[in-house]
């Protein structure tokens, strides 16, 4: 098991560059930077963006560009991907992009890798073209990427310039047990998408820990759990703010996606019983409430899972309320 005390676990941010109703994508990016600067001051370890495509409310499609924007306008927080969907890209191009980032911002860049397309099948076809089966080669592509980053590649016919010889931590991201096996076999840190795919979380981290093989990058297993967080002064206010994320997940369940909606006084009349059940299942690892409530829930979660790091993602309509939520969450962990 990992560390069990709230005080000892690292805490980080996952940003999907969520576009809210009534605001522009440019507003979204500026808000992300303000959030990252505050996160840096509050002791958050890393600030990651996720690669998604063809989604009206998610503007983090050019993930590496946003990582550069955040890293270039902050001083110490790590910036990275949660993740780059490797089958969408050639390993060489990813090595060059992250080699460039790590050269500009040494010691501050993380490369989290996933195998999903981060979108629907039609868009995946537009991205991957003839390489629609690229996800089957994910383990080999991770190998190729590691090779491009290694000093040993200096005499190869194809080299990553920049990238070669740089220390860029690679993470395996996952939402199933397959990714756990790969992360364990390669001795890499493992980040689980429990914020939207909670079903296999416990099973996956157990497989990862039981099968972990130490590597040059990592001597012991390291588990990060990504969770939804909506913190406010009172449980009631947090519940009200959380109606935005519930509406967002309802859009995923029904296929009717919209920009992030303002909070509703109640979800009654917005969803039916089947939609509610599906959404609440996806939101199983969500920490919604006052500091006191979140601290109690988080303590149980950390004790039960032994995670090493928690990554918070917050889909909150009002930007000031979102900043406050991240402040309150940091206080829970700092003052534990």
UniProtKB/TrEMBL annotation:
The organism of origin for this protein: Mucilaginibacter xinganensis
InterPro entries recorded: Bact_Lucif_Oxidored, CmoO-like, Luciferase-like_dom, Luciferase-like_sf
CDD domains membership: Flavin_utilizing_monoxygenases
Domain Luciferase-like: 23-308
One Pfam family here: Bac_luciferase
Molecular functions (GO terms): oxidoreductase activity, acting on paired donors, with incorporation or reduction of molecular oxygen
Family: To bacterial alkanal monooxygenase alpha and beta chains.
Name of protein: Luciferase-like monooxygenase
SUPFAM superfamilies named in the record: Bacterial luciferase-like
One GO CC annotation: cytosol
